[in-house]
Amino acid sequence: MSDYQTHVFTCTYTADVSGVCSAMYELGGMTILHDPSGCNSTYSTHDEPRWYEEKSLMFISGLDEMTAVFGDDQVLIDDVVHAARDLNPGFITLCGGAMPHIIAFDYKGVAHLIEGETGLPVIPVPTDGLKSYISGVGKALTAWIKRFANQDEIGEGLSVNLLGVTPLDFSINGNVETMRREFEEAGIPVNCCAAMGEDFESLTHIYQGTVNVVVSSAGRRPARYMERMAGIPRVEGIPIGKSMSQKMMDAVRIAYEEHRNVILYKENEDHDRWSVPEDQILIIGEEIFAQTLAAAINTLDPEKRFGLTAYALWPDVDEGFPERELIMAMRQARIVIADPLYKVVLRREDRTVFIPFPHEAYSGRIYRKKIPLFTGSEYEPEILFEHVNLNK
Predict the structure, then answer these.
(1) Kind of pairing, strands 281-284 and 57-60?
(2) Percent of the chain whose pLDDT exceeds 90
């Protein structure tokens, strides 16, 4: 068993099934999680802050032992057909946990049968509950775009699509709204935000956007698909703080005018993520967030960051972190910025100063109220070090 598979101290990130649900939440469909039980409760109570204020059709199939043993898919088909007739959703998304994966459940075939009986579009998203939310969001958005987006539309003038936007990375504390406003105030219209603040109809016009801004690694898969299909260039990064916000707007204009991809944090990409020098700043989290925040910190005056350089460390999409290497990197760092649940790996004798930065996809609702508003030019990265004293 590899280090990726065994975790003694650290948690895992939200699973791919929750990523699918999060991506589809506001689009007017019905999402079916094929699983014995539990996944829907975990998703709705821990991963989805919209659950208590905004309705969405999310159901668990209740796969039981005998149905799994005999491979009786008709039970699921009948239940979905009856629910669809009662609730009349715009479309149906079919995903699942580990058990359907183990018994080789045929997502595509069952989706075809349900579509034939209901007359509704059914999107199969083969998940297994073992990968991270990044995989689930990316697969779901790409499948939705393939099925419903109007590819014949051609955008005129500069406008952006924000891809990979879910509460798992940005919560519902104003980060998404601030990010949209940042582009609008810079004279760059936001065509679509996939998938928060959009409905089914508005998202069908996603091909009218002329630059895709990938603000989470969950948005890479749909961005690459749209690049293949329509030649739309992408920019990777988040407008965090004044410096990175300005770089973002410049990057979007370059991508549009020169029709090429731009990585906002390119200067931070050139090092091996596991070869972080000792006694520096280590940021742990989703890749594009961690890389962008590191770049934003490195634009500060050296005095404001104690003369240290920030580096990013992010989990593998399919396997997470090798815990042994992660712990070693954290204990060798002078400052660690990460979700509060990571602090457990540090010992009293470690010199590492820990700065909490909650991430919904890691600690769920536990620290939800403490997630900062980190997007936009008004955010000041130096505030992270406001109460830090390295002389203690």
Answers:
(1) unpaired
(2) 81
